[in-house]
């Protein structure tokens, strides 16, 4: 017996695919998160790492002030996400904001190795690793 089609399933398919991608690429994502965290710290920047899926997946900086404004505009509905981002420990875990279909999804996980180790073990430089993961994500979302 087939269950009736739920329109929300299609709308949220990107979240499922993104979660699968994260599971398959945790070490590389941790390396990117740590490398970009180091760059942001060096420039005294409080942006949050984002992964914008449209029109093509790409890593972006999300200004903290823009997320606070968005939280105000949606009556505090992303306050919990902001709290997790504020309290995450970059040396132990990864927090990336997935952006797609007018929705946000927090990608928050603790990789097997700490992010600094993932970064030091990466065989590619940061720009190459970013491009490689963006391409892989494009393929997995197709």
Could you give a short description of this structure?
It contains seven helices and four strands; from the N terminus they run H-H-H-E-E-H-H-E-E-H-H. It is an alpha+beta fold. A hairpin with a 2-residue loop joins strand 3 (94-100) and strand 4 (103-109).
The portion of residues assigned to helices is 40-55%
Which segments are poorly predicted (pLDDT under 50) over 5 or more consecutive residues? 1-5
* Structure summary, number of beta strands: 4
Strand content: 15-25%
Secondary-structure-derived class: alpha+beta
Q: Specify the number of helices.
A: 7
* Order of adjacent strands in the largest pleated sheet: 2-1-3-4
Explain the overall architecture.
With 142 residues, the protein is of the alpha+beta class. Helices cover 54% and strands 17% of the residues. The protein has a four-stranded mixed β-sheet, with helices on both faces. A hairpin with a 2-residue loop joins strand 3 and strand 4.
């Amino acid at each position: 017996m087939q269950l009736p089609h739920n329109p929300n399933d299609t709308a949220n398919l990107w979240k499922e695919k993104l979660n699968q991608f994260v599971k398959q690429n945790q070490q590389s994502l941790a390396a990117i998160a740590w490398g970009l965290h180091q760059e942001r710290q060096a420039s005294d920047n409080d942006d949050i790492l984002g992964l914008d899926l449209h029109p093509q997946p790409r890593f972006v900086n999300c200004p903290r002030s823009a997320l606070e404004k968005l939280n105000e505009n949606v009556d505090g509905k992303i306050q919990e996400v902001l709290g997790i981002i504020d309290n995450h420990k970059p040396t132990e875990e990864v927090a990336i904001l997935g952006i797609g279909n007018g929705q946000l999804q927090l990608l928050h996980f603790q990789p097997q190795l700490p992010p600094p180790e993932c970064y030091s073990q990466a065989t590619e430089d940061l720009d190459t690793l970013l491009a490689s993961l963006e391409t892989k994500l494009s393929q997995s979302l197709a």
